[in-house]
Write a structure and sequence with these properties.
The complex is a heterodimer.
Chain A lengths: L7 E9 L5 E9 L4 E5 L6 H9 L6 E6 L2 E2 L10 E4 L11 H5 L1 H5 L4 H15 L14 H13 L5 E5 L7 H18 L2 E6 L2 H7 L2 E6 L2 E6 L1 H6 L4 H6 L6 E4 L17 E5 L5 E3 L9 E10 L3 E7 L6 E6 L9 E5 L6 E4 L5 E2 L25
Parallel strand pairs in A: 3-8, 3-9, 6-7, 7-8
Antiparallel strand pairs in A: 1-2, 1-4, 4-5, 9-10, 11-12, 12-18, 13-17, 14-15, 14-17, 15-16, 18-19
Helix pairs in contact in A: 4-5
Chain B lengths: L2 H39 L17 H8 L1 H33 L5 H13 L2 H12 L5 H8 L11 H29 L3 H9 L4 H30 L2 H6 L11 H10 L4 H26 L7
Helix pairs in contact in B: 1-12, 2-12, 3-4, 3-7, 3-9, 4-7, 7-9, 9-12, 11-12
Classes of the chains: A alpha+beta, B mainly alpha.
């Protein structure tokens, strides 16, 4: 814990809807100047959390503080924040410049200042020359930048983003991701960003808050989430292709850590940690599997395998791998790469197969990434 | 040019004319031909068996302008349009905003507002005839409760036109509300939230975002209301018959009266042409001026 008080404090906030979704007893602290991503499947409460911070929803219970001020019942305009909507929510009848300065005009900002700030925002977002265009005359990426310009023009220290990239095509999404991250660092603002795309979360965030059913599943920096998922859900949600989660009873018994009931365990393994061997019994503890298909992606090849009694697994192998469907293979991994979860609750279990030594595994070395306190 | 391409062009042109033909035939028969015939008719004197009709030039128009009734009727219609158009549009907008809000019994409110539109104008006028009945009508019962004298709302020149105007507004607002309601539902709620975050209150949002986005609807409704202010006279037959002393007489009613009560069809034709001309000019102004400043999505 740092001595500095968090910029946003959410204290056991609940907001429940008639349909059953919402957030339940949620507490989050967000440090000043950080890029926080709320990640989760649809209906997990991530958007509700964002709207609670924005003031578009009112908390049933709990308190929300922004910069030390209790804003639980303040209207959105009194919270000193801006927001980028998924649909961009640009005013279709106003041109780019009018859209950007809408809020400044409403707040009756001085005319010269409006002009300076508009030029600054246009400059930062690279929209010079588009001032007089209507949103309908812009491409998706340009509209997205207008929404971004509108969010930063007022100079609020907090910017909320609700899946701002989901309407862009894949290539653009990648470059805008970087642009947004750069912008956030340059302006030193705090960004709370909602997405269901774990790639976005992993590549942009200082802190990822993974949510499920209105509660926080896990929060931490991206590396934490990837390397030390606290639950089977987190393990399966983060990473692409996802971690294979296999019920332990489908595995050979010598793989199972000693002293544990195999029925109550789930075994997880990242695709890149799997090694494939076509010669069985090369190692004492392999899993027998059948190749069902493969995808060649240039630098790497995904090989999909079926394991009886499971949903199967994916192995991520470097370079080009020729392996025809139907081939019998044996799967193996470095012992430290295995993740074990409680079969019922999904909680992470810190156990290791005693016969395995894992000094050579890079996963065990301390990561030097600074882990922000939450 | 390629023979095949030319043939295709010709076929496309023929196809277009074929599609337009039914509407064109009907319009010619029932709109263009009558309009031209009316114009022609308005240039001749009234024919009787003894004195056949002769070309009179613009004499019929001169007669109209000399007739004090013309000026009364024109003034009446201006007042009628000047009040019914803006008031029914404003009512329609307010009702639509209300019916679009998240209120209990929303569908009941909507259908209640729409009921006057479903009623035929003749039925509505008969209903209002009872409301306006001196001493016994609902209105006098209410005003009488506060100690006011019974008023013959439809029977005195001071209140006759106003009474007719109120019936029209009551009838039209619900109809226009439907258009506003439909338009409001196409406006994404995100815009409201974005405006709220930017610090816009309810009024600022309405003025800066909602009204501009509703402008196409407003123009449509405005054109309709204007046409109705000339066209809609059914209730006059039931309520006042244009009286007393022409106090509630509107142009179309007067035309009908000239043509079918006094059998003065040349003057009626001349008046019709004047109305057509006026509406045509207003339509051009509308398209040229207003549409340019409107945002269409």
């Amino acid at each position: 814990m740092t001595a500095e008080t968090p910029f946003i404090q959410i204290h056991s906030v609940s907001r429940v809807f008639n349909g059953g979704n919402g957030v339940h007893d949620l507490s989050i602290d967000i440090p000043r100047g950080s890029f926080v991503v709320l990640l989760g499947p649809s209906g997990c409460g991530k958007s509700t959390t964002l709207r609670l911070i924005a003031g578009l929803e009112t908390a049933d219970q709990g308190r929300i503080l922004v910069d030390g001020t209790d804003v639980t019942n303040s209207p959105p305009s009194k919270r000193g924040l801006s927001m980028v909507f998924q649909s961009y929510a640009l005013f279709p009848h106003l041109n780019v410049a009018e859209n950007i300065i809408f809020g400044l005009k409403v707040r009756k900002t001085d005319k010269d200042e409006i002009k300076t700030r508009l030029n600054e925002a246009l400059n930062v977002t690279g929209l010079e020359g588009y001032e007089d265009r209507k949103p309908s005359e812009l491409s998706g990426g340009q509209r997205q930048r207008v929404a971004l310009a509108r969010a930063i023009v007022a100079g609020h220290p907090l910017c909320l983003m609700d899946e701002p990239l989901s309407n862009l095509d894949a290539k653009l999404r990648h470059s805008v991701r970087k642009d947004i991250r750069d912008l956030q660092q340059r302006l030193g603002i705090t960004v709370v960003y909602v997405t269901h795309d774990q790639t976005e979360a992993m590549s942009m965030a200082d802190i990822v808050i993974l949510m499920k059913d209105g509660k926080i599943e896990q929060s931490g920096n991206p590396a934490d989430l990837y390397l030390q998922p606290t639950s089977a859900f987190a393990a399966g949600f983060v990473g692409s292709p996802p971690m294979a989660l296999l019920p332990a009873k489908a595995l050979p018994t010598d793989v199972i850590p000693t002293g544990h009931n195999e029925r109550n365990l789930t075994f997880g393994i990242r695709p890149e940690d799997l090694a494939l061997s076509t010669q069985p019994d090369q190692t004492a503890w392999g899993i027998a599997a059948t190749v069902t298909g493969s995808e060649f992606l240039g630098a790497e090849t995904y090989v999909f395998v079926a394991i009886p009694g499971t949903d199967g697994a994916t192995a991520r192998l470097p370079g080009r791998v020729h392996i025809s469907p139907g081939t019998e293979v044996s799967l193996s991994w470095a012992g430290a790469a295995a993740h074990w979860f409680d079969g019922e609750t999904g909680h992470r279990l810190s156990l290791m197969k005693t016969s395995q030594t894992a000094q050579d595994s890079p996963l065990n070395t301390e990561t030097d990434t600074a882990i922000p306190t939450l | 040019m390629n023979e095949m391409a030319r043939l295709q062009h010709r076929r496309l042109a023929l196809y277009g004319w074929m599609l337009a033909a039914p509407a064109l035939a009907l319009m010619s028969l029932f709109a263009f031909y009558p309009a031209i015939a009316t114009l022609w008719h308005s240039l001749f004197t009234r024919g009787t068996t003894r004195r056949p009709s002769v070309f009179a030039g613009l004499d019929n128009y001169g007669d109209l302008f000399a007739d004090p009734t013309f000026w009364t009727v024109a003034a009446n219609n201006l007042i009628y349009a000047g009040v019914t158009i803006p008031v029914s549009i404003i009512f329609a907008l307010i009702m639509a905003l209300w019916a679009n809000a998240h209120i209990p019994a929303r569908s009941f409110v909507r259908s209640a507002y729409f009921t006057p539109t479903i009623l035929p104008m003749i039925a509505a006028a008969n209903l209002w005839l009872f409301f306006y009945t001196p001493d016994l009508g609902v209105i006098d019962q209410i005003t009488g409760f506060f100690g006011a004298e019974p008023t013959n709302w439809l029977g005195q020149p001071e209140t006759a036109l106003a009474s007719v105007i109120i019936v029209t507004i009551w009838k039209e607002s619900g109809f226009f509300m439907i258009f506003y309601l439909a338009a409001l539902q196409t406006i994404p709620p995100d815009l409201r939230e974005a405006a709220r975050i930017e610090g816009a209150g309810r009024w600022t949002y309405t003025r800066r975002v909602l009204l501009p986005l509703l402008m196409p609807t407003t123009i449509f409704v405005f054109v309709n209301a204007m046409i109705n202010s000339v066209k809609l006279i059914d209730h006059l037959f039931i309520l006042t018959k244009g009286g007393p002393n022409n106090a509630s007489k509107l142009i179309l009613y007067w035309i009908w009266e000239m043509a079918f009560s006094y059998f003065d069809s040349p003057n009626a034709a001349a008046m019709t042409i004047l109305v057509l001309l006026t509406l045509g000019i207003v339509a051009v102004i509308q398209f040229r001026l207003v549409e340019k400043r409107t945002h269409y999505r």
